[in-house]
Design a protein that fits this description.
This protein is mainly α and 309 residues long. The protein has one domain: MetI-like fold (Orthogonal Bundle), CATH 1.10.3720.10. α8 runs antiparallel to α11 and α9 runs antiparallel to α10. The longest helix is centred in the middle third of the chain and has 37 residues. The protein starts with a helix and ends in a 6-residue tail after the last helix. It is a multi-pass membrane protein.
Length: 309
């Protein structure tokens, strides 16, 4: 029964307007393939990475600063060359990609949950609650997101003991980025909630005595998730880029747990000494990741817009 149901749902999705729109857009298909490849490399990095860049026992300083495999003086075992510590650049990128994507997804989930909850409460309850939430959102929007993230990051690092900064770096980044990006979700959900709470089905639910929380979660929430999905998709690329920026500035992931931003920061120090591959390849990976996510987000926004169908 379950297999038949799954097959039916899969067939229904294949015949849907959404999948048809996806197949028609060659740019979106290419972006999805690139994103799937990056996700695969990040998830299975311990299996497919040629070397473990964190295993000091397998590092040989005689293999440091080797160029990519197609250049003169290269070692074919290191496809994208090695850095100044003899770490394989390809392996470092795969492991760094894992951290960047984890921080991106975790911060987007945090921002979405917080923003959707505050947007629902503000739009449905109204009054002083709505006013306070929106004024806080306005204050956050008056500052560049990276500055707010830097502020939250600095406060969190000031609270934690110095010996826990490296171990808690991921948690601090997730909180800094997530607490910066919830405003977009809250404002969008609030606007949709203001419309939905006037609908007949909400009035009927109130009439029969359904509680506020149940109305918000079971009646209004499913009808406002479409825009949230689009915002979350686009914000994933922004979150990854924000993490890379913070790491590049030296307040993100440490060198012992390098993300793509950390790899770019470390490699940038040797760019003008001729070791260009240490910074170019992580930068290209970050650019492809953010571009692919943004392209899919743009397509999803258009595909879910009934006015463009």
């Amino acid at each position: 029964m379950s297999d038949t149901s799954f097959t039916g749902r899969l067939r229904s999705f294949a015949d849907s307007d959404l999948f048809y729109s996806f197949r028609r857009s060659k740019t979106t298909v290419i972006a999805a393939m690139a994103l799937a490849l990056l996700f695969f490399g990040a998830i299975f990095a311990p299996v497919i990475a040629p070397y473990d860049p964190f295993d000091i026992a397998h590092l040989n300083l005689l293999d440091s600063e080797l160029p990519p495999a197609w250049m003169e003086g290269a070692n074919p075992a290191y496809w994208l060359g090695t850095d100044t510590q003899a770490r394989d650049v390809l392996s470092s990128i795969l492991y760094g990609l894992r951290i960047s994507l984890f921080v991106g997804f975790a911060s987007v989930i945090l921002a979405a949950v917080l923003g959707v909850f505050l947007g629902l409460v503000g739009g449905f309850v109204g009054g002083i609650v709505d006013a306070v939430i929106m004024r806080v959102a306005d204050v956050l929007l008056s500052f560049p997101a990276i500055l707010v993230a830097l502020l939250i990051n600095g406060v969190m690092r000031g609270i934690l003991p110095a010996n826990q900064h490296e171990s808690a770096a991921i948690l601090v980044l997730v909180l800094a980025i997530g607490l910066t990006n919830w405003v977009q979700y809250a404002r969008t959900v609030r606007g949709s909630t203001l419309v939905e709470r006037q609908r007949e089905y909400v009035q009927a639910a109130r009439t029969i005595g359904v509680g506020r929380l149940r109305i918000m979660l079971t009646h209004i929430l499913p009808n406002v998730l479409g825009p949230v999905l689009v915002i979350a998709t686009i914000n994933l690329g922004m979150a990854v880029l924000t993490e890379a920026t913070l790491s590049f500035l030296g307040v993100g992931m440490p060198a012992t747990q390098p993300s793509l931003g950390t790899l770019i920061r470390v490699g940038n120090e040797y760019l003008f000494s001729g070791i260009w591959w240490v910074v170019i390849f992580p930068s290209a990976t970050l650019a492809v990741l953010v571009l692919a996510v943004n392209l899919i987000g743009d397509w999803l926004r258009d595909a879910l817009n009934p006015k463009l169908r």
